[in-house]
Amino acid sequence: MEAIEYKCPNCAADLKFNPESQKLSCEFCLSTFTEEELRALKKSAGEKIPDEAEIHTQHEFEEHTNLYHCASCGAQIMCDDRQTALFCYYCHNPVILSGKMTGEYKPSRLIAFKMNKDRALDTFRNWVKKRSFVPDDFRSEQQLDKITGLYVPFWVADCDIKADFSAIGKTIRSWTSGNYSYTETKEYRVVRRGMITANGIPADGESKIDDLLMESIEPFNYDELQPFSMTYLTGFFADKYDVDKTQVFPRIKTRASQAGKKIIRDSIGAYNTLSVSTEQYNIMKTDWEYMMLPVWFMTYNYNGTVYEFAINGQTGKLAGTPPLDKKKLRMFCTALGIGITAALYLLGGVIF
Amino acid sequence: MKKKLLFIIPTLSLILAGAVVFNLFIRKGENLGKGFDGDISGSRVIDSTGMFTYDQDILEELDSLAKEYSDKLDMNICIYLSEKWYNSDDAVQIFCDDTYDEIYGEDTDGVFYMIDLSGSSPARDCISTSGKAVLLYEKELDGIFERINTHLPSEGNTAYPDDIDGAVREFLSQLERYGNKKPGFFSSYHDKSSGKYFYYKGGEFIVSKKRPPVTNLLMLLITAVIGTVTGVITYFSIKSKYKFKTSANPGVYVSHEESRLTEQSDTFIRSYVTKHKIETSSGGGSSSGGGHSHSGGHGGGVHHR
Questions:
Q1: How many beta-carbon contacts under 8 Å exist across A and B?
Q2: Which of A72, A280, B61, B210 is the most buried (most CB within 10 A)?
């Protein structure tokens, strides 16, 4: 409802959200506005402006979010109804409009994109530049064009973790005196118990995207979370979650335990050895929030393997597995081996 | 820079490989060996000490024996009795090498044996080998000196004509002993000062500045192994960099303000001390060598009596 009303007050063209300026901008007359400015402008023009609560209703989400389905990989992509998704962000096959979204998929909050496509591509290009043995077409403009600004659905959990740790720690000191060496060992009982709170542990709700890939582009700065608005979807796609919070809980539990373990281990002094007898991290309470986080996403299909790349749309942190052109590497190493053989042979002729 | 390396390394490798192929198969090595001209009259015993002034017959007999062995072994043989003392091994070796070259010419087949009769200490006897004698006797010098030594007085004692007679006969007999042995397939000798290699190829004795084919092949094999190992290590090292690296750290989500440890204790339980006797051991010594420069290729060695 409200999303389609964001027209440029100057030229009446559709306004798009600009991640860099965090404002709505007009591609035709290059004007930029904040939401507040637009509302003020509309108010002064006598238009009826719905308040924030009205804008972000479930109804609006249901009305203006189209759902596209990829028949090839099964991905389900959401975007606002002013744009049309043509290709799947994951497998790059054509997608078809399959209907409107239901309100349960509307996230409560999101972090808006701060990096635009050009900056994301620069980050990617710099990363690829350091890797000489990627296939040639991996750097091609055609491939880079596949990078997609995607709001990835995340289940974010705040956990209270009960930690119970006990171990025997040993310190060892050695010295020599006369013809003898001495070793003194001191043993301590190490106990740590308490409640550890971890806030904002994320787990993505998309089964196709590698969990480790998403974890590798963390952390997101939750201070920049905004209430969900259709405005932020303009120019980007959003993924519909296919893994609910019950399914992601084991991951959250593992990550919460890792967080708890780090705190406990960091609190233990420098023992030479530590024999752990008890180490338990039990989650006592979990508060969930469903949100969308900005990710520049790209896949590359090489020799039957899909390589995924993700850039944190907020911080610019990049993660992914670079594809290796083994033929190119083999040729290089063969040439290097021949070169070293020949160089040593010729050098040997000078020396011997 | 990395992209440039991708181009530079294969190009450089191609050039170097070309140089190796040229060196191995195209470049011909000239045979510098002059052999033995068959003139046994040049073989002799030279007495610069005057020891045989009154025993000329012994000297003549030794002289004709040298010629006889020269004929048998197809090489020049010169035995030099020196009254001059040289103050270093290098000096005496250079003297012998140069004197041989002066008398018989560079890279001819032959030996020059100098017996130090100066009476100074240490007595430095020296054998200089040239041409095929390098290959025949180089590894046997210690054995030859050892056998000759049984006929010569130890340092500080006077040598008599009979001693020299025995030593020269032993020397010639040793030359014959090792001269009849066929050098092994891998036998070769490299004189670093002249840069010459001495080896047999297809039954022909070669003196050349180019390495023997067998040595070439061996070197190529060794360097190929090193090159292959380097290539393989590089392959796996680069391949390992094309793996996914995760940098997730859930510790960043911990709220230190809200977390609290209700129990945090490190309680001392006990301590104990173990004692071990330290074993001791001892080591050995080391040795070193030197060299000189001259144009003719030689082998040889100096022996202290």
A1: 222
A2: B210
pLDDT digits (tens, 9 = 90+) for A97-135: 666 666 677 888 899 999 999 999 999 999 888 888 999
Which chain A residue is nearest to residue B211, measuring alpha carbons? Answer: A349
Q: How far apart are CA A252 and CA B63, in angstroms?
A: 102
Contact indicator for A333, B234 with CB cutoff of 8 Å: yes
A190 contacts in chain B (CB < 8 Å): 265-266
What tokens were used for A42?
């509309």
Q: What is the pTM of this model?
A: 0.63
CB-CB neighbours of A137 under 10 Å:
12
Distance from CA of A70 to the nearest CA of B (A): 27
Please tell me which of the candidates B211, B239, B260 has its beta carbon nearest to residue A194. B260
Question: A203: closest CA among A288, A271, A139?
Answer: A288
Torsion over CA of B96, B98, B101 and B103, rounded to 10 degrees?
Answer: -70
Q: Nearest Cα to A201, choosing from A215, A216, A213, A182?
A: A215
User: B23 to chain A: which residues are within 8 Å by CB?
Assistant: 345-346, 349
Q: Which of B7, B258, B259 to mutate to test the interface with A (most CBs of A within 10 A)?
A: B259
Chain B, residues 144-173, CB within 8 A of chain A, namely none
ipTM of the complex: 0.72
For the segment B10-69, what is each residue's pLDDT rounded down to a tens digit? 777 778 777 777 766 666 668 888 889 889 999 999 998 888 888 888 889 999 999 999
Q: How is residue B200 written in tokens?
A: 């047999």
Report how far residue A250's alpha carbon sits from residue A253's, in angstroms, rounded to the nearest whole number.
5
